[in-house]
Design a protein that fits this description.
0% strand; elongated; 71% helix; single chain; 151 residues; mainly alpha
């Protein structure tokens, strides 16, 4: 252990005190200020003390936590799994029914806040930008516009 390793370990602890991080995220953040050997020692320290996931089950648990966070922020399955991949975490499975429900809620919110009339194409593009599949965006748009036409 060299002199700067305790600094790298302290930085890992500081980062983890703010929120959970994957190993990949920690490596990226530490790479700005520390050598690879120092980063490796700091990561091993975190693993030894069970501060970061060491098993597949723990990684999946962390991925599920992040997925809940991204779902609350109204992101679709594609965007959620893309964010998890960037963090070095395994993808999560989101049912088509859950995705459709979220997409419908987003459309309702978008329509209620918009003062102008939105076309189906605009609503579909909006959902695609939020990470929903094309088929889900089309179904949700059809459902919500038909519900609006009935009322």
């Amino acid at each position: 252990m060299n002199k700067t390793t305790p600094k790298a370990q302290a930085r890992v602890i500081k980062l983890l005190s703010l929120r959970d991080h994957s190993e990949k995220e920690l490596r990226q953040k530490l790479s700005k200020n520390f050598l690879k050997s120092e980063i490796d020692e700091a990561i091993e320290f975190a693993k030894r003390h069970r501060l970061i996931p060491t098993t597949v089950a723990e990684s999946q648990k962390l991925a599920a936590q992040f997925a809940r966070y991204y779902t609350q922020r109204r992101n679709g399955p594609i965007k959620i799994n893309q964010a998890l991949s960037q963090k070095g975490l395994p993808p999560v499975t989101i049912s088509d029914e859950q995705a459709l429900t979220s997409a419908c809620e987003l459309i309702q919110k978008k329509l209620s806040r918009s003062s102008k009339v939105l076309t189906p194409a605009q609503l579909i593009r909006y959902l695609l930008s939020r990470g929903f599949s094309l088929s889900c965006a089309q179904k949700a748009t059809r459902l919500e516009l038909s519900n609006r036409a009935k009322t």
